[in-house]
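Invent a record, attention on tokens:
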Amino acid sequence: MNKLLLIPLLMIASLSLAQADGSVRVLALFSDKAMVNINGKQLIIKKGQVVDGIKLISASGRGAVLQFSDGSQKTLGINQSISSAFKKPQKKKLRVFSDSQGMFMVDGAINGRSTRFLIDTGASHIAISSAEADRLGLDYKNAPTGRVQTASEEVPVWNIKLDRVKVGSINVPQVDAVVLSGNRPEHILLGMTFLQHLNMQREGTAMILEKKY
């Protein structure tokens, strides 16, 4: 091969490898914005924005604080980069089938303790009976209180925050929930404080749950 042609071909090959290799590089910094190159794609991201599983926590002249899909954070200055580990993550997905009564029940966990949920898009919060909260070891009795009207009566409730809620392979941290005094609901209602983090789709008797990011 002609040596004059070999050099540009090698340069093109090197560029292709660099873009294929999962990487993040900070190109410029602004107030609450950063110009970055993520996996070969150059763009400006704003504070709170998520791209390919990478979230900009903050940005200033001192650097950009980036959070990755595993929850870790890294501060990068201009022209600093991290390589080889940041390919676009696979979205976590779960298929749940309805029971004979048309309800969607799913096994999961709260703060690492196993439980069972009823998916309820009409519930604004995850709703837990105090009996189940006691079984799960939740510390709720010193939490802010209120009252809520159930189908049969008005009952006291406690407003709490769960460290982590898991169904299948889908994990969501820091989820708001309410604890209702007594034995109801029979199953924990998996309400919108959790479901807002998912895309939901019906396929016949199945509901497909997919984490948004």
